[in-house]
Every structure is written in structure tokens, then in C-alpha cells.
TrEMBL record:
Protein's organism: Agrocybe chaxingu
Name the UniProt record assigns to this protein: Uncharacterized protein
Superkingdom: Eukaryota
Chain positions covered by the region annotation Disordered: 38-64, 147-166, 203-227
Comp. bias (Acidic residues): 45-64
Biased composition (Basic and acidic residues): 147-159
Length: 227
């Protein structure tokens, strides 16, 4: 997934609040990420008009060296577009996980009864562990992994039918391994950020006094909270 700090300033505001509009029209791929577009450029955006495609270099108008350089620039731009789309997709996936609190569990440091029990008895529960980058990436790619695993299971006619679980594990490992080093580094950073947030929450819940809010007290002493 993307480093959540990749998009800042106007880019972050746009992605957070204007998901139905067009990103590239406001923030051209050629514009460095640390440069904000001018107010005039943003005001001139027309979402009803398609963005013009870069022209293919004409071999007849250029000498051999110029033509090859033009082709390289065009391909580099196309590669950057693909990469930027991937960054946005990973950023959206990160925000989805964050918005829906997919990291929250009702065990360990997240369980109010366990927190109270530790404060009263001094018996500690496990600190949250940092997930691997592959496991964090996997949460946002379950559908693709499942689809490929099922396809392989159907096409495998070499012997007895394999259970889907080991095929799924193999697919997930291969897909993550195929990511670029930059993408792997971004997912590693996401894993670190998530772990840091969980540790901060763990420390806050362990060291702070039990909540006196009625809803929290009810949760703390309900039979459903008892291990």
C-alpha cells in the first residue's frame, strides 16, 4: 500500500473530498509531487472536456536520435502514469482501512475487560505485534488473490485436487513478490505506521485510568467481555 504521506497539500485534500472528480486534470503527472498547481490552473479545469493525449513523435520530422529520445520521454510519461495510478490506488486502500478501522479487534489491548484486569492485577497481555508488509498488502487484495487461486485450482489437472488454502498462500506470496521495490517499501512503511498507532493506543489504554463513561463501564463488566 502506499506511504500515507505520499500525497500532501492540495493532493490530499482532493483525494479525501473529491473522489468523484478527476485527479490528473488538477495535478498533471508531469507536475512534481512537491509542487502545488496555481489557483488559475485549478480554476481552469473542465471535467466535461477530455484531457488531450500526448502526440506520438513523428519519425519523418526528427532525426534518428531525436526520434528515439522522444519515444523514451513518451514511454517514461506512460510509465509514470501507471505508477501514479498505483500510488493513488494504494492510498485509497490505506484510507479505506483507516476509515473502517480494519485493525481494531476485541482482544488484547482492545478489550476493556482485559485492560481493567491488568490495571487491577498487574497481569499483562501481549503488546500488539507489527504485521509484515505482505500481510498488510494482502488485506486490500483479497479479491484478486481469491480469483487467481480459484482459477489455478480449476486448471490444475496434474493430480488430486489441492485444497484452496495452500494455493491461496502461494498466489499471495507470488503477487507480493512481483511488486516493485518502491511498492514494497511503501507497504513496509504502512506496516510500521499501523504498528506505531497500535502501540500508542495500547500504551494509552493500559496507562490511563478506567473510563467512567456509562457505555464503557457497561462493556467492561458485561458477561460478553469475560474471557
Amino acid at each position: 500500500m502506499v506511504n500515507p504521506g505520499t500525497f500532501r497539500g492540495g493532493r490530499k485534500g482532493f483525494l479525501m473530498g473529491e473522489k468523484e472528480s478527476y485527479y490528473a486534470a488538477r495535478f498533471p503527472v508531469d507536475l512534481p509531487l512537491d509542487v502545488e498547481p496555481s489557483a488559475e490552473a485549478l480554476a481552469a479545469v473542465d471535467d466535461d472536456t477530455a484531457e488531450p493525449e500526448p502526440e506520438e513523435p513523428k519519425e519523418d520530422d526528427l532525426d534518428a536520435e531525436e526520434y528515439q529520445e522522444a519515444l523514451k520521454r513518451l514511454q517514461a510519461r506512460r510509465d509514470l502514469i501507471v505508477y501514479r495510478k498505483g500510488q493513488i490506488k494504494r492510498w485509497m486502500a490505506y484510507q479505506y482501512m483507516k476509515d473502517h478501522e480494519l485493525n481494531a479487534t476485541e482482544s488484547g489491548a482492545q478489550n476493556p475487560f482485559s485492560i481493567l484486569l491488568q490495571q487491577l492485577t498487574g497481569v499483562s497481555f501481549h503488546r500488539p505485534r507489527q504485521k509484515t508488509p505482505a500481510n498488510v498488502w494482502r488485506r486490500t487484495n483479497r479479491e484478486q488473490i481469491e480469483e487467481e487461486a480459484k482459477r489455478r485450482a480449476v486448471e490444475d489437472t496434474t493430480g488430486p485436487k489441492k485444497k484452496l488454502a495452500p494455493i491461496r498462500e502461494s498466489v499471495a506470496k507470488e503477487m507480493f513478490a512481483s511488486l516493485s521495490e518502491q511498492e514494497k517499501e511503501e507497504w513496509a512503511q504502512v506496516a510500521k505506521d499501523e504498528h506505531a498507532a497500535l502501540l500508542a493506543k495500547y500504551k494509552s489504554e493500559v496507562e490511563s485510568p478506567p473510563s467512567t463513561e456509562p457505555v464503557d463501564r457497561q462493556r467492561q463488566f458485561s458477561m460478553e467481555s469475560v474471557p
